[in-house]
Amino acid sequence: MRHFLAILALFVVAVPASAQKEVELGIKSTYADLIPLSVVLFSAVDGAKVDNARALEQLVSSDLEFSGIFKITRGRISQAGNGDPNGLVEVRGVLKQNRGQTHFEGLVVDGSNNLTIGGKRYVVKPNQIRQVAHHFADEVVRMLTGEVGIASTKVVYRRKTGDKWELVMSDYDGYNPQVLLRQTVPVLFPRWIDHSKAMVYTSFRHRNADLFVRYLNDPESKRLLSHKGLNYSVDWSGRRKEMLVTLSKDGNAEIYIVNKSGKIKRRLTHNRAIDCSPCWSPNGREVLFTSDRSGSPQIYVMQADGSNVRRLTYYGNYNESPAWSPRGDRIVFVSRIDGFFQLCTIRPDGSGFRPITREAVDHEDPRWAPNGRHIVYSEKRGGEKVISIIDINTGGKRILSQGDTPDWSIH
Fold this sequence. Notes:
The structure is a single chain. Helices cover 10% and strands 45% of the residues. By secondary structure, the chain is mostly beta strands. The protein has two domains: 2-28 and 153-408, 6 Propeller (Neuraminidase); 35-145, TolB, N-terminal domain (Rossmann fold, 3-Layer(aba) Sandwich). Strands 2, 3, 4, 5, 6 and 7 form a six-stranded mixed beta sheet that branches. A five-stranded antiparallel beta sheet has the order 1-30-29-28-27, with no helix packed on it. The protein has a four-stranded antiparallel beta sheet with strand order 10-9-8-31, with no helix packed on it. The two termini are 29 Å apart.
């Protein structure tokens, strides 16, 4: 809702450039009931570089720790002082040279009997250390839990640098930022579509809030929707292969279903109130959205054909920006509590209200990781907005970069 009003203001008010401030990056975590896992010192043999082996080991350890699933120790289980090795697991790695190529073999080993649970082999090019480490960490998560890992995923977000607006894509941990778009007019709400092969965003490039699409393998963006007024606030359904979009072409903000070519398939809402911030359920059968039809912004849900509209949030007088967990069990949204916007979750039936953040700063724009336990969002730190990630189970947190309105890829 606040985004809707902010976009309206951009039609008539120039946005001043703000001074960039340094952001303190770091990780804060709390642990309970985590799986013990020992990371053995990765070795370098046959002429491979020891520094590269150490970098791989540190990256894999960091990824596994931030997954929120494991409690990491270092060294062989017997050497780490863990006592009885039953039920404990080791992660091992060897970097080696072979016929001019660098190879990495990562193994997951049962500490009780020294039998291999699983492993992966990689050819490692000089610029692929991080990529290989992230992929192997995800494989360890999959082998031991069956869950989806997030270390190989990407985050896209918006940031302001001087007088330029940028869309930036980075690794999930904030490294390897790539500027995909840089322009002098505002750009808003990047969202992944089409199995994370492309992103859509709103831009004032043609003096209207038009929707553009940019495929990662294409050098240029294409205008997708240019209806008079606002074309923004997209959510993609991989199951339906369709987007939810907020349009004001008929004089009021309403929610529509649009295909990836920009063709409107159906209008879902018909109300004098502002209806915005739509989000698909994982199965594509229901739609979350924000509306002020009750007098204040609240979260509503409806069937995918626009029927059976019902209100979900009743706590407080300002709730917005819903996002449905990929697991389907929780909904995250923004709620104003004691004067600050906090991230909260509820169950799909509206029960089980739980605040996720509690600091006296504003938290906005929540989007789920594909594992359904991490959330990327923006918050204010030192007068600047930054992109952060939080684990809703452990409270582990990481600040990635300056920016806002992030979205998380599915792989």
